[in-house]
Amino acid sequence: xxxxxxxxxxxxxxxxxxxxxxxxxxxxxxxxxxxxxxxxxxxxxxxxxxxxxxxxxxxxxxxxxxxxxxxxxxxxxxxxxxxxxxxxxxxxxxxxxxxxxxxxxxxxxxxxxxxxxxxxxxxxxxxxxxxxxxxxxxxxxxxxxxxxxxxxxxxxxxxxxxxxxxxxxxxxxxxxxxxxxxxxxxxxxxxxxxxxxxxxxxxxxxxxxxxxxxxxxxxxxxxxxxxxxxxxxxxxxxxxxxxxxxxxxxxxxxxxxxxxxxxxxxxxxxxxxxxxxxxx
Length: 280
Description:
The protein is of the alpha/beta class and about 280 residues long. It is built from twelve helices and seven strands. It has helices at about 20-35, 40-45, 50-55, 65-75, 85-90, 100-105, 125-135, 140-155, 170-175, 180-195, 245-260, 265-280, and strands at about 1-5, 105-115, 165-170, 200-205, 220-225, 230-235, 240-245. It has a seven-stranded mixed sheet with strand order 1-7-6-5-2-3-4, with helices on both faces. Helix 2 (about 40-45) packs across helix 3, helix 7 (about 125-135) packs antiparallel against helix 8 and helix 10 packs antiparallel against helix 12.
């Protein structure tokens, strides 16, 4: 069976001023008032503006881990704020992506096929921001920053002691589309090269001139958990599907294997990206 999720409940799936963010904000304000600290003072101690502290307290902005840790210390919260970090991390992601994000963070293997933009795990912060700024209808600045923060948070997977085995296949056009301009794209190509040289990562490019192509049905991801569970994920517009039935997952695994065979090899792909970087 497949698990289908949409984000119709809130704008692009983010919860605003409710749930865990609201509860966290109330706790921050309560501890701040208890020790007699102003928003200006808390902001100065944690490195944030009073306006941002207000947004945290009102549940309008997702606090990063470093703020939570510092605020817990400054406000003498005895670990109460730190204990909420796990739940707060979940709110970084749109509702429709949370199931996949959790599986991704705990995966043993991750495999991606991308057709329109560079995979989120490979994106630079500026590339990610520019891609969100191009969304139509236009996103407000707060939503864009939430999306960027969530995308950057996903990349913490590269810093784990036991990072998963990863492979990426992307269409040539993804690398040639200058999202954000040449400067942004140059940095993006350099990041792809840096990540692609890691021993646990393989990056491949699907040339546009390939006459045979098994990936015409669109992008998807494959996830294998530490327990050996295999799952596929596909996303279109504001909806997504997690495929858990073995038959469906097996078909996409076979498709991915053919796509990899049709693409340039990892070493050929790195050379291709290097040539593009030289042209940019």
